[in-house]
Amino acid sequence: MKIKRALLSVSDKRGIVALARTLRTFDCEIISTGGTKKVLQNAGIDVVDISSVTGNPEAFGGRMKTISFAIESALLFDRERDADEAAALGIQPIDMVVCNLYPFDKVKAQGADLATLIENIDIGGPTMVRASAKNYKFVATLTDVQDYQTIIAELQASDGALSLKTRFKLMRKAFNHTADYDSLIATTMDEQAGAMSLRYHFTGGRALRYGENSHQKGWIYRDAAAGKSLYDCVFLHGKELSYNNFNDIQGAIDAVKELGRFGVSVIKHSNPCGLAEADDQRVALENAWGGDPVSAFGSIVAFNQPVNRHTVSFFELNNEDKSRRKFVEVVVAPDFSEDALQYLMFHKNLRVIRFDPQNSANAFDLKYLAGSLLVQDADVAMFSKMELKTRRTIDLDASRALIEFGIKGMRQVKSNSIVIVRRTQDGGYQLLGMGAGQPNRLISTKLAIEKARENLQNEYTGNDFEAYVKTVFAKAILVSDAYFPFPDNIEIAAAAGIKTIIQPGGSIRDKKVIKACDQLGLAMVFTGLRHFKH
Amino acid sequence: MKIKRALLSVSDKRGIVALARTLRTFDCEIISTGGTKKVLQNAGIDVVDISSVTGNPEAFGGRMKTISFAIESALLFDRERDADEAAALGIQPIDMVVCNLYPFDKVKAQGADLATLIENIDIGGPTMVRASAKNYKFVATLTDVQDYQTIIAELQASDGALSLKTRFKLMRKAFNHTADYDSLIATTMDEQAGAMSLRYHFTGGRALRYGENSHQKGWIYRDAAAGKSLYDCVFLHGKELSYNNFNDIQGAIDAVKELGRFGVSVIKHSNPCGLAEADDQRVALENAWGGDPVSAFGSIVAFNQPVNRHTVSFFELNNEDKSRRKFVEVVVAPDFSEDALQYLMFHKNLRVIRFDPQNSANAFDLKYLAGSLLVQDADVAMFSKMELKTRRTIDLDASRALIEFGIKGMRQVKSNSIVIVRRTQDGGYQLLGMGAGQPNRLISTKLAIEKARENLQNEYTGNDFEAYVKTVFAKAILVSDAYFPFPDNIEIAAAAGIKTIIQPGGSIRDKKVIKACDQLGLAMVFTGLRHFKH
Questions:
Q1: SS3 B455
Q2: Closest chain B C-alpha to A382 CA, distance in angstroms
Q3: ipTM of the complex
Q4: For site-directed labelling of B27, which of A77, A81, B85, B365 has its Cα 20 to 30 A away?
Q5: Residue A463 pLDDT more than 80?
Q6: Which domains are seen in chain B, by residue range?
Q7: Residue among B63, B78, B180, B295 with most chain A CBs within 10 A, to mutate
């Protein structure tokens, strides 16, 4: 369909001259309004003023420019069914609308008052856009400056015509544009009235093999308003990503993205069962793996730095002794060296994903509860204070980095959450044991201690294991996501040999808990911030 | 602002005659179009035809009716700033638009083809609605049939005028209406192109005291497109509901809503630590509480039936011995007898919520991952088969109800999830122990067994506890949310005295697992459906 007559009326003038020039090379007549017309005329382009088509003046401070029987008829009439009627009424078709709307979003972002917001609600623009989009079988609707280049190329390749396929695509974009526009106006006006509403737009839906389980269908979309997210990850190798993979990868990314140096997280069922940072990436991986070498099989492993071959050769994927091969479901990192990727490809099913954890930051958490929506600020703070509460002291400055590592780890474990962390001999930090998702905090404490002991057993080669545990635990730190309601947790930790506990504080029985620490010779620090995660 | 001239053009004709009659009693001039005009004239109401205002005919099969310089000018011009210009152009103000749009939603629901969908995209309607809404300072925009009664009342009370407040409210509704309208068109056209997009609208946002933790802000909204949900629960008594309360109440409701007879769930940190159904509500509560009498303190308790005083007196809220009082955070039920409510109000902080779990059903789960969205069908199926795999048999028909109870419980526990359920002496079903949220299934199995033993210890008064455990476990059922990768879980269960295991099956080592059952004398049933929940 050749574009013989086009209406150009844009708020954002970028690229409009080049587009108009292209249209003119095919003798397309250009109708235009106010500011757009000036820009085009200044560029030496022949333009017909809109009022010569509408028969009406521009009126009411620009509120009325395009809206008219003549313009909307020219956009809307069915070129087949209504041809005679149009001719009788003297309506000549317009084949293209190029229009972007008053910048309500920008004006809002600038903190405009109600009157200014209202003045920036475009009426004529959406009318043209919607009318021409409805009639996409005969009319092209251009609403996005980013599309001009492709459209120019198609016009040039097709002797000034645009295909039905292109017009259909532009129509979809047009209605998405007006939907976005009115969505923002609606939520803004609600906001002006003190009423809170939210509108989300998710795009690019892709069906996954299935949902959390094979009898559930599953999909992934991107939030059109968000920046980069997991949706944009680059799939380098392996089996298709599953619903549970995406969920776990997000957990792995969240766990690793705040770590310093070389950081590694190992995720199973959305809880980190391994977490470490070190000066050496291979060491970090070994230490993360060591957090739960049993559960680490079939896990999701995330790195905060580009990965090299020496690091991933830890997985022993090509070991002739198959029992030595460490299979993980997914490896995700900001990048992979060529030989690291080659190495990982030894396993045909292992999913290798390029995604920079730094690209996954969100100010908000959303939780959908069967028709209700919980929204909250992301949990980004770590502590509001660092207050030693016991007779036994610790050097807070010297321990600060390890404590922060412990809080970062604990914050990713589902509540009730207890983690035990230590400084390793190489100067790195390691999650030595964790207890997750228990209704009773006591059980989480027991689970963390048991797992830590098990891990120490794996590394210990001497013949006084209990003495070794005491030595390690004396320098380790136990971190709790919420206060201890009773001294029982302290007693269990003390019996195991733990000497330092980090917790938010805030229980009505804090005094009893502190007293228990004093009696048992433990140091306890209050951070002031609870970190529930469900 | 008195309504002197109104434009009525509606697709849905309900209530339009009554509204027009009211307007006429205040001598308001009524302009109307096609079908609407006929309905009003048939009712004997004086109507001015729109074409006498626009100066144009209705054209192109109805595509052009209202859009014109005259109409939109009459709606849009600023009554103060533009008064002279309007007079000079012969534009008389229109003070009210009553308009609802072509029923794109209904046509879509009927499965219309693309051409029909396109024909049902209203162009003139949204233009009028948006123009009059923009000019809300001078024009009222009525888009919802449900509002006619209130508007009629205000017109009658105010001598044919509508307040600025009303016009502002109508304006918000108008932009929400056009946003919804174009949102549906946009997602439908994407769909037509095989591209998946979603648009959600959440309304009625309320700030909560804080989010999951006190340093996070939190809000709750309702999904405008969903039916009743937790947002609509009725708050009868107690402290304000917190973010975590809402999350846990949803968990409690999900756990109880599928139970038969009298059902009760007890939730802590979004996992059910207690679950029971019985012929008697008080018994069900006692048995649910018995699933973890330690963690039940400070829990969320949900009922599937209206609650009576005898049931809740179990909490002993007014016991003079304060240590006997069982404090829970929230009690939620479809209803409360007057005396049950009075009883619960003994505790000033206890939140009492009226909500019928049956009102919380959703076809979809949404999970937001920092800019990406996972969508899946809700997990509603229980099993695809019921296949005995071992030499030891069980009577599947006789055990069916208990197995289903076990699956319902297991399905609500975070993965890896293991539950042990039993039939109680009164013929009810009880969750006797559960293991939740562990990276290693073995730990979940151990946790479930330990908890079950602990609970049996609470009820046992004899002097051969181990024999008692064996007797109970021999009749209990252990349910796993996913297959057992190795026989180790079987060995632990067998050693504890468990005789019957329900699991989906599907491991490459199923044969080894079945063999272990046969060697240890256990019955095992495969259900074919995994139930991961994260």
A1: helix
A2: 10
A3: 0.95
A4: B85
A5: yes
A6: 5-192 (3.40.50.1380), 233-358 (3.40.140.20), 384-526 (3.40.140.20)
A7: B63
